[in-house]
Amino acid sequence: MTTAGAGVPDETELNSLGLPKPAQDTRVVVAMSGGVDSSVVAALLAEQGYDVVGVTLQLYDHGEAVHRKGSCCAGQDIHDARRVAARLGIPHYVLDFETRFRETVIDTFAQSYASGETPVPCVACNQFVKFVDLFETAKDLGADALATGHYIASRPGRGGRGLYRAMDAARDQSYFLFATTRPQLDMLRFPLGEYAKPDVRELARRFDLDVAEKPDSQDICFVPSGHYSDIVERLSPGAAVPGEIVHVDGRVLGRHAGVIHYTIGQRRGLGLGAAVAGRASDPLYVVRLDAARARVIVGPREALETRSVRLRDVNWIGEGELADLPEGGLEIEARVRSTRPPTPARLLPLAGGGAQVLFETGEFGVSPGQACVFYDRDGARARVLGGGFIAAAEHAAEPTEPILAEEGRAT
């Protein structure tokens, strides 16, 4: 901080977004999905006197999405965003990024899923569409900041702004934003990081927004039925190759209609008779998917336990650089699913920009393609240090030699 009159504004002159100019001279582009969260962000910033511009991305077929519940960025959602913008008296633009979304998110999802991985398309959407195209649009509009309705916080600190878990732990979306880059963080703002969901809905009512009671999005937007295999079969005909269901001890237990119909950790719907599946007290789970050999590998629950993972495409937004971590690694909290709390682990950088995460206690149902997100050990409001995508997992109880020798994917 410098003194006033030295050419740099005093810290007390920063507005509520941490920018050195009055609110009325600060242009903020708000990513408006048509839901209650982003609508309230636009309303809050407009009330505070900012020069607010709403932008909505149309990400997939408008006609198919009309009246479809539980999704975002299409049909009724675009209509709702327009109405909110009109209610607030702010300009609003709809940008068609359907082709880019299909190529970078949907097609990649289908290919990854068909290969036996468990991709996280919401991460890819933020990484390759929203936080790329929206940034370019915001810059073209002369914006000082880009605001979204995500439940996550950002604060200035050493080395630039950092990401932190949201106050409302049940709504925290940090898992999906680990790939945000440092330059993006400098421009991004998340006004809902300090709000609970009920308070946001109450604000929507106070602002008299039509979306105040609108249900939250539940499904992946382009898979509203929740049946991932349907879209994989549509985009990749022939991806459902029949094959064998194999026990980790090498026994062939049955046949399946395609690995795309299974996920790691799945217990029900394996297509095995009760006599084959075993006693009720000893159920079988999907422990691996070998798409190359069209095999579904099953075993007891202990075969699902994972002690470490190797990561690819690692993004580091903590202090310093990933390669400069202590020789023995860094104690962190790691999260392998958005629905699970972070657990104690140790992070080790690897040559080539990858990383290894060693869990203090076993994780279950870990699959290649999932994201593994790093946090510091600072409690519920921990800082997001980055993350990567799981390339391979080391299991506490490895399969027997016959399976390992033929396994098409790394373990």
From TrEMBL:
Any one GO biological process: tRNA wobble position uridine thiolation
One GO MF term: tRNA binding
Source species, domain of life: Bacteria
InterPro entries linked: MnmA-like (IPR004506), MnmA-like_C (IPR046885), MnmA-like_central (IPR046884), MnmA-like_central_sf (IPR023382), Rossmann-like_a/b/a_fold (IPR014729)
Site (Interaction with tRNA): H150, Q370
Keyword tRNA processing applies: yes
Protein name as catalogued: tRNA-specific 2-thiouridylase MnmA
Recorded name of the encoding gene: mnmA
